[in-house]
Amino acid sequence: MARDGEDAGMVKAAKVKRQRKKKTKENKTRTVHANILYDNAKGEENPNRHYANNKIKTTKYTLLSFLPKNLFEQFHRFANVYFVFIALLNFVPVVNAFQPELALAPVVFILSVTAIKDLWEDYRRHRSDKEINHMDCLVYSRVERRYVEKYWKEVRVGDFIRLRCNEILPADVLLLTSSDPDRLCHIETATLDGETNLKQRQVVRSFFDLDCDFDPTKYNSIIECEKPNNDLNRFRGYIIHRSGRRDALYKENLLLRGCTIRNTEEAVGIVIYAGHETKAMLNNNGPRYKRSKLERQMNVDVFWCVIILLVMCLFAAVGHGLWMFQYGDKRPVFDVLSPEGTDLSPIMSAIYLFLTMIIVFQVLIPISLFVSIEIVKICQVFFIHQDMDLYDEETDSHLQCRALNITEDLGQMQYIFSDKTGTLTENKMVFRRCTVAGVEYSHDANARRLAMYQEMDSEEEECTSHGGTLPRRDSVTSHQSARVVLRSQSTKSHRRTGSRAEAKRASILSKHTAFSSPMEKDITPDPQLLDKVNECSSQMDFMRFHSQPMSQLPSDLSDIIDFFIALTICNTVVVSSPNQPRQKVKLSEGYAPPLKSPVKTIEDFIKRFTPSRLTSGSNSSSSSSLITNRSSNRGCSSILSSPSAEKLRYEAESPDEAALVYAARAYKCSLVGRLPDQVTVELPHLGKLSFELLHTLGFDSTRKRMSVVVRHPLTDQITVYTKGADSVIMDLIKPPNTGENSHSVCFIVYRTQNYLNLYAADGLRTLCIAKKVLTKEEYACWLQRHLEAETAIQGREELLFESALRLETNLHLLGATGIEDRLQDGVPETIASLRKAGLQIWVLTGDKQETAVNIAYACKLLEPEEEILTLNADSQVNDTGHCFINENDYSADHIYPSSSPSSSSVPFMVHRLGLVIDGRTLAYALDKSLEDKFLAVARSCRSVLCCRSTPLQKSMVVKLVRNKLKVMTLAIGDGANDVSMIQVADVGVGISGQEGMQAVMASDFALPRFRYLQKLLLVHGHWCYSRLANMILYFFYKNAVTLIFWYQFYCGFSGSAMIDQWYLIFFNLMFSAFPQLITGTLDKDVSAETLQQLPQLYISGQNSEEYKPYMFWMNMIDAFYQSLVCFFIPYFAYADSDVDLFTWGTPITTLALFTILLHLGIETKTWTWMNWLSISFSIALFFTVALCYNASCPTCYSPSNPYWTMQRLLQDPLFYFLCVITPVTALLPRYFYRACQGTLFPSPVQVGRQLDKLPAETRRNILSLSRTKYVNHIEQAKHHYHNLFVFQPYINVPDTITVMGHRQPLECNLVLLVFYVKVFWILGLV
């Protein structure tokens, strides 16, 4: 019995354990059944009922939830809560200062404006949602036994959907069948990642061999897959059939919502994810919101305003208490009793008065500041979008602003971190040269062809005529000797200077295909290499005809043909036809290559690869196989019904792949077809061969390589072709065995490595090509573990990664390629301008060090006269790396003693030092113990170049500089590997280039070209910062003109006001609001032309010169002074008169309005008709409201009586006199300060503004002074004016200058000389 009880307990425990496992599994996976099996069942019996439907809703509100939800969101702002509290406090009778209903008006207005803006945005989203939800699609109906049209919103998980060509996918669909004979479906993913090249998706493996149309009623499988996630490049799961067979599911089987079906007439799939659970919707995060540096500083000043408010209220409360205390037991006639009718003590009166004064002085906190800033920022973004200088005609794209609230940060950048490939360069890869089996082929004719695409000046043409292309070299010595002579020309070759017409023509030709311009496609082969390819192919054809084994082929020729086979098939390129754009090339009926499925199980492997086929010693089987292949290939001499192989179009996912495939095609090794299980290539003399594609091990940033496993059609051998970065491939080369061949292998590896170094020194991107032949036993052993990795759901990526590492070992080196990536237009000029603007530029790239250094010289990041510090550590951090960094840090600290990271947050610029560091050393340098020393060395350098850096290292470098130096950082890149860097920086900029839109979608701003960064920062960034900084300071000043405070000294600090409450409530909200919005949107302190010609003016934003802490206090002091003037001049003017309170208070309000508007006029730099109109409108609005209010509301708020007040004032000459004398007196100190500062101590921005006022010819002459050398006259200026100005020894001054069309000696015009000396001082900062 005890034993039975123990067994029962164990069974129960096992059941609980299984249930727990099942529950855990359910939490991590999703099970999808076909809905047609549950059409007649109740809703609660459908296992798919818990999944989201396909109706999308991106709106935030409904009719019922809008008001409470929007108010709740707005009350997340502390300022709104504060103003609502003040308004509600005014409803308390004992402390109220204004009419309660009227006091609510400002906060209700602000909340209403924000609510209307939110409502409009939400309504636009609602219309978009409705349009999408009501699109049609075909869904299978079991009742009608056919596909019926339904709205997208009616689609459910588990539905079968029929998809047609050019139709947009309504949900994430698992592909079950396709009308394509190869069971493929081509899709375009431009809406997801911006890539216009076609991508192939394949039918689920178990449905691949269906001979008839797919019948949904016969579907009885169950799908297990991962939970919904936003990873576009991952899908894991498996499908379980009734027989118990389980097949793995991959991302190649999933069609994502938003993609477009291409080149496929029909396809059928089952919905896996719907609605908000689709990957596209999970990636739709909308605009990004950040807090700018200026906004953070503004919040500090708002806090100080609160402190000032409390101090003023406390002062008034104490004054009121003392005032009441002096009466003792005799209560004054104006005393207000408590609600119970009793007298209040002085202390209680002071407390109540404190609360009353908070209501009265609430204007000190700018209630409309936050809304005004939002409005101004939206307007600024609109005008940036309208700038045609930021539009790229070639790509038909313009700037995008994805973060609406950090535009002012663009004017305060200090560090720029840039990717290289696709950001500084075109990312249009052009095949330049290669080395195969240790022999280098220079492709001189191809180099001359590329020279035709450049518009070179006479100097460059002369240089080209003397040896514009590097001759073919078989030795390192000859390469090095030529490299010295042509160093400057090699640098110039990276400049993309092709004509705009040629670029546009190429853009039109490649409109529907990425990486297919004539410059990239029309490659001229090297004659010697072409002869070897033809010789090799001819011998192979002869050997195949005579049934001889291919092993008799010489090794050097075998490497050549394998090299080009690897270039052709080791990729994911899709083949299409140019005369039928985006239509797949179909095979003719006369050609039917054997369609064999990839090896997916051990049983398949044993059945298909019998010992007779894999035994290398069996010549008979080999010959029979060769004869079969030969006959099948000869029987299909016309494989294509579309144009010849030379006219095929290749749609690649990366420019490197396209360049290599086009290079192979130039040698008659053409890719003519790609299926899920085979790749068809055309070789000279051999015709078309079909390589059975067994596995594709895709590229990743960790392995830095990709591989394909194929069965060679001529040898029946399982061959692995690998291409990747030389830094990893060279480490995977099989070490030579002792024997005759070992010396040759070592020599080939040595020669190839030398050529790789020389390619990199010429700025070429390098790739290594290798192969590996597997025996039957090796492949079977690897396959078993690989299949386990493929069918795993949890940790599949890690298992596949380990599987790839096990396969990619002991490779045989075939050769290497050199690909040129040209610089974009204007990159050197842009970098030079940004440097003059005080910006530190770091380039973070994954390229080889030599390649990156060469490109850095070409784009002027590194200068020839600079001394380069190179940090390359081959040992651990506490050995070589540590010592190396310490040594460099020591020298840097002694040469540049202020390079400590804590010395200053401003970049320390040094002009003759550059730093180059590789990825391995960077990993050591980013260690906690060394990061400070690395940062000290980097800050003392003019340029920093990080090579072989991973995406994680890029983000770590940006984060290190941003957090340690407390500087503003900008990261710019174009690819998915730049996303982490872009997101970490204060401002992220994406380039909408050749690598899709991943970087753009993660960025705050998107640009078509790198060169547009110059105007975005130096012009728009400067303007946005200057406008907002001055507007915020003006807001603080305007609200600090507290006239009522001075009146408290004459009314016993009772909280009374001499100004009508209508004027108090609406003064800042209406009467003075519009001009500052116009100025904040349109004001330009310096013209765009001057800002770009004098980039050093940008430094004012880096140093926050427009908004420093002392400026806030100066504005507050100025506001208090102006309030004193506006109060006491009318006070003394109307002293001893019989005017009533409002007849005296209304002129004070009018004078304050005039003073504030004139103050804005002094601070406005650019006057337009909108500035004049806004000021006129404000004045007209005030007088219109005053006249109407005084005429129509005599007893609206008794006992006050404003009747006919303004009408009487307009008849009084004293009123007009006050309107002149008071604003002049109030603004005289500020005007005098501005005049003295602009004349005696001008800032660089003020001098730039003076330049804008000069005639165009004079301005051009002054701006060109830095390129002219007249030292004698600057010495005279130094002698006469050394006490007033700071001079640099290299300033240049002409002897004469053109003024108003007349040439005048400079030293004879004292006024001009003073002005020019100021300008020279600015130019001397360059």
Which features characterize this protein?
1326 residues; alpha+beta; nine-stranded antiparallel β-sheet
Give a brief outline of the structure:
This protein is 47% helix and 15% strand. It has 1326 residues and is α+β, with helices and mostly antiparallel strands.
Description:
Helix content is 47%, strand content 15%. The protein has 1326 residues and is of the alpha+beta class. The chain has a 9-stranded mixed β-sheet with strand order 16-36-35-34-17-30-33-32-31, sandwiched between helices. The N and C termini lie far apart (97 Å). Mean pLDDT is 77; it is low at 1-18, 20-26, 455-512, 580-643, 876-911 and 1266-1314.
Topology overview:
Layout lengths: L1 H27 E4 L33 H9 L3 H12 L10 H34 L2 E6 L4 E6 L8 E5 L7 E7 L5 E5 L1 H4 L4 E5 L19 E5 L10 E4 L5 E4 L4 E2 L4 E3 L3 E8 L5 H4 L10 H33 L20 H15 L8 H17 L5 E2 L4 E2 L1 E2 L13 E4 L6 E12 L2 E3 L2 H8 L6 H8 L10 H10 L1 H6 L7 H10 L8 H4 L5 H19 L9 H15 L4 E4 L5 E2 L17 H7 L2 H4 L4 H16 L14 E3 L3 H12 L3 E5 L3 E6 L3 E11 L7 E7 L6 E7 L1 H4 L10 H22 L2 E11 L1 H15 L5 H12 L4 E12 L3 H10 L3 E5 L4 H10 L8 E5 L5 H19 L17 E5 L1 H7 L5 H9 L3 E4 L4 H15 L3 E5 L5 H6 L2 E5 L6 H4 L3 E3 L4 H29 L2 H5 L13 H11 L2 H9 L5 H6 L5 H4 L6 H25 L7 H23 L5 H24 L12 H5 L3 H28 ...
Parallel strand pairs: 17-30, 17-34, 30-33, 31-32, 32-33, 34-35, 35-36
Antiparallel strand pairs: 1-8, 2-3, 2-4, 4-13, 5-11, 5-13, 6-7, 6-12, 8-9, 9-10, 14-15, 16-36, 18-19, 18-29, 20-21, 20-22, 23-24, 24-25, 25-26, 26-27, 27-28, 28-29, 37-38
Helix pairs in contact: 2-4, 3-4, 4-36, 7-8, 7-34, 9-34, 9-37, 16-17, 17-21, 23-27, 24-25, 26-34, 28-30, 34-37, 34-40, 37-42, 40-41, 40-44, 41-44, 45-48
